[in-house]
């Protein structure tokens, strides 16, 4: 069972959750691979993202769509080609 940690101010509520063992094993693998300090920290972040979502500005969304269009149209270049064009080593 995954449980949230209690903060020093006592405003957090403890939650018990039942998960299939295989799912929990996959979850544990993910939080460790992604560098989280604990299962609870990983789950809080995942739940926060599920509730509040990732919010991008209108400009950022437009830029992502333009990048996708450029990729689909073959208007992109390799990193090596970009280095050659701009005369950089890295």
Automatic annotation (TrEMBL):
Gene3D superfamilies xref list: Met repressor-like
Residue span(s) of domain Ribbon-helix-helix protein CopG: 14-51
Positions with biased composition (Basic and acidic residues): 80-90
Sequence intervals crossing the membrane: none
Domain of life: Archaea
Segments of this protein annotated with the region Disordered: 68-90
Descriptive protein name: Ribbon-helix-helix domain-containing protein
Organism the protein comes from: Halorubrum tibetense
């Amino acid at each position: 069972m995954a449980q949230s940690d209690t903060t020093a101010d006592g405003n957090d509520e403890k939650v018990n959750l039942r998960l299939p063992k295989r799912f929990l094993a996959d979850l544990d693998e993910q939080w460790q691979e992604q560098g989280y300090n604990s299962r609870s920290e990983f789950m809080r972040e995942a739940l926060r993202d599920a509730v509040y979502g990732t919010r991008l500005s209108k400009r950022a969304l437009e830029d992502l769509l333009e990048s996708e269009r450029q990729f689909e149209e073959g208007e992109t270049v390799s990193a090596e080609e970009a280095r050659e064009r701009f005369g950089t080593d890295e």
